[in-house]
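Hey team,

Sharing the Toll-like receptor 22 run so nobody has to redo it. Sequence (962 residues) first:
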Amino acid sequence: MDPGVKDDKTRETGGRNSFPLILFFCLLNIGGLLVPVTGFALKTCRVSYNIAICVKMKLIAVPQDIPSTVKGFDLSANIIARVQVTDFQNFKILTQLELNRNRISGIDNGAFANLISLEKLNLNNNKLVGLGEDLFHGLSNLTELRINGNRIQDVASSSFRDMKSLTFLDISHNKLHQITKVHSILQHLPHLRELNIKNNGLTTFCSWELTNSSVELKYLDLAQNPIANFSITADVFPNLTWFNIGGSPGKQQMIWDVHNKTFFNRVSTLDISGLQMAFDDMKTLLEIVNSSLTSLRMNAMKRGLTALINISCTIPTMSRLQVRRNKLSYVSSDLFKLCFDVTEMDLAENKIKNIPDNAFRSLQSLRILSLSRNRLSSVPAATRKLPSLTELDLSFNNITKLGCDDFANQTKLRRLNLYGNSISALQECLFKDLIQLQVLKLQNNRISNLNSAFQNYLPNLRQLLLNGNELTEIIHGEFSGLKSLQNLSLLGNKIKTLEEGCFIGLTNLTDILLQNNHITEIEINKSCFNDLINLRRLDLRENHIKYENSSSLPHAPFSQLSRLESLAIPSQHGKGKSQLPRNFLQGLTNLLFFNSRNIQLLALHKDMFNDTPQLQTLDISSNELMDLSPDLFSPIQNLKSLYISRTSLRSLDYLTGSNLTKLEFLQARKNEYSVISEEIIKSVPGLVYADFQGNSFTCDCDNAWFIKWVKNNNETQVFDAYNFECNYPVNLKGMKLLELDIRSCSVDVEFIFFISSTCSILFFMVVSFTYHFLRWQLTYAYYLFLALLFDTKHKNKRAPNQYDAFISYNTHDEAWVIRELLPKLEGEQGWRLCLHHRDFEPGKPIIENITDAIYGSRKTICVISRRYLESEWCSREMQVASFRLFDEQKDVLILVFLEEIPTSELFPHYRMRKLPNKRTYLSWPRAGEHTELFWEKLRQALQTRDDRAEDCFLLTVLDGRQ
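Structure output:
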C-alpha cells in the first residue's frame, strides 16, 4: 500500500524503515529465539547476530567490554547522561547505534569521530538542548539520523558539516521555533531526501530563509507546527513528492502564500489532516497539486470536509483518499459523488453507524475500502455495489451476525477483515460468492459454530484466522472446501475434540496453530493429522496433552507428517506428572524444531529422537527431569540450539559423549549445576553462546577451569557471567563467582615458562661472559680442584723425597732437557730427577703419575717456554705443583725460562704471571756465556730445605753480568 493510505503511526515513528534494529532482526524465525554469532563474557550485555544488545540494563555509561567487531550496538532505554569521547573510539565497523530513551544531555566533541562506518544513529527521546559545533564530526557515511523527542533549541552552523551522505533526518518534537535553524541544517546536506521537523514550534515558513537548500528532498513533514504564514516565493523543493502540512495546533489559521503553481507540481502524497486554513487557501493548495496528486489525507478536519472531498475528487490523478477521525456518524449519499476515480478509501475511526445503500454508488473503481473501528452493526449493503472491490476491512465494529447476502456478487474480493466484532456463528452460504478470496480474518469474535461455512466454498483461500473465538470441536471435513489453504489459526478457542478426518482436504496446509485449547492425548492419538501431508509447522502449546508412561503408542500421532519442521507442545494444563511415548515423534524425519517446555516431564526415553535426525533446536526447559542419557542426543548430531533451563538436573554430564559437535546455543538457566567441568565444555566444541544464569555454583578449585575459561575464551559468549553467584561454601555464599581467586588452584604454566626462559637466558649470558672473560681463571680453578682431589688421595701413599726434583717440560723442549739439564744435574751434581718419559709408571692414569711424581720429589722444576704455556698437560703439572706450594707453604717450585716471555704474554696464564714475582726462577737466555753461574744457582735452589714459601731465595739471573 502506498504511504498515502498507511496508518498515521507509520510516519509518526519517523519514516518507512523504522530503526530499532529491525526488532532485533525479528528475534528468529522459530520460537522467538536469539542466535548469537560470536563469543566472550560480557558484564552487562549480550551479542546476537553481531548486535550488542544492552536494552533496559540501567546503564549509566557506555560499557567498555563490547567487542569492536560488532556491527550494531543497542543501548536504548538506559540512564546514560553523557556520551564521552572514549565511548565509541574502537568501533570502526559499527553501522547502527541506538541511544534512544536515555537521559543524554551532553555529547563530547569527537564522541562519534571514529565511527567511520556508521550508517544509522538514533538519539530519540533524550535531553539534548543544543547541537554544538562539529557534534557529528566523522560521520561521513551516516545515512539516517533520528533526534526527535529532545529539547533542541540551538543548532550550530557546523553541526551537520560532515554528513554529506545523510538521506534521512528526523528532528521532530523539539524546540527549533525558527526556520533559519532548519536552513543551517539543510545547507550541509546535499543528498537529504526525507526531513521530519513536525512539532517544533515553527510559526513561519518562508522560502527566502531556505536558500541553497537540498534539491533532492522528496519527503517533508511539517505537521503539528503553529505556522501562521506559509510563504513560498522560490522553488526551494523542486523534487518534493511527499508533503505533510497538517495538524496545526491552536485556533489560528494558516495563511497560504504560494501563487506559483509549479512549486509543488510534483507532490503525489499530501497530508492536510487537522489543518486550519481559509477555504479559499485550501482550495488554492489543492489546485497547486492538481496535476500530480495521487494520495490525500484529510483526517480530523474541523470544517468543510464535504466540500474538500468534492474538490479533491475532481483532481484527475487522485486515487487514494484517507478520511479518518472526522466524526462521520452518517455517510450521506452525496459525500463521494465525485470520486469516480478513487481506488482506495480509508474511513476508519469515524464512529459511523449507518451507511445508505447508495452511498458508494459513484465509487465504481474502488478496490480497497476500510471501515475499521466504527460502530456498524452489520455489513453495509453499500459494499455489495462495489464491483471492483478486492479488499474490505470491517474490523472492530459491532457486527453480531452475518447473512448469506452480505458478500453477494463480490467475486473479486481477495481480502476480508472481520476480526474484533461480536459474530457468534457462521452460515454455510456466507462465502458462496467469494471465489477469489485469499485472506479471511475472523479472529477475536464469539464464533462457536462454523456451520459448514468452509466445506464447499472459498477455493482460493490461503489464510484463515479463527483464533480467539469459542469453538469447542473440529468435526470431520470441517475445512474440506479449502483446497488452497496454507495457514490456519485456531489458537485461543475451547477446542476439546479433534475428530478423525477433521483436517481432510487441507493437503496444501503448511501452518496450523492450535495452542491454548483443551486438546487431550485421547484425541491427538487419532489420525486427525494424517491428511496434512505438506504441514511445516504445528503448534499445540497450552493444551491438556499428557501421557502416563513412555510406552509406544499403537498409532504415532504424527507419523504421516514427514515434512513437518516445527512442533511445539509446551505448557500443558492439568495435574500430575507426565511422560512422552517413545514413538511420539515417529515419522518426523524433517523436524527441525521441537518444543516440549513445561509439560511436567519426568524423563525422556533415550530413543525419543531416533526418527528426527535433522533436529536443530530442542527446548525441554521447565520440566522435572532428574537425569538424561548421553544416548538421547546421539541421533540428533545436527542440533544447534538446546534449551534445558529450570529442571532438576544437577550436572551437565549428559553432554559428555553426546557428540553434539554442532551445538552453538545452550541455555541452562536455574538448574542445580554446581560445577561445570572442562570435559563438558570440550564436548560441545562449536558452542558460541551459553547461558548458565541462576545456577548454584560451588566456589572452589573445582570450578577454577570454568572461571578461567569464561574470562579468557574468545569463542563462546557466556551470558551474564559476571553476575554468577556462589552458593557453596556457606562463607562465600553471595560472592560473585568470577571474583574467586583461583591462583592457588593450579600451576601457572605461563609463569613457569617465563621463569624458565629467563633463567635460560641468564645462564646463557653468564656462560658467554665467563667464556670470554674468566675462562682461564676457571680452568685454573678446575685443575686446582683436581690437584686437591688427587693430593688428598695420594700424598701419603709414597715415601716423600723419592726424587730430588720432578722436571716438568714440553716435548718440544726435550732436547734441551736431555743435552743440558740432565747431564748437569744428574751427571755432575748427582741429583735424582724424575722425567715423565722415563720414570712414569705404565698403565697408571697420567694425572696420578703427575701427582705422585710432584709429591714424591722435593722440588719441581718447570722448564718454561711458549710451547710449555700452550700445553694442556704442562698446565696440569704446573697447577698440581702450585697447589703443593700453597698447601705445604714450602719453596718447592723452581721456574726455568728457556725463552724471554713478556709479561703481556703471561697474562692469560693467571698463576704463571704472578709466580715470577714471588718464586725462584732462572732465565736461560739471560745466562748468556755465564752458564756456570746459572747451574750453580739451580744447584743452590735444589739444596734449600724447609724454607717458608714467602722467604724469597733470589736466584734470579737478572744483573748485567748475566
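Residues 774-943 form a domain with the Rossmann fold fold (CATH 3.40.50.10140).

Ping me if you want the raw files.
A.
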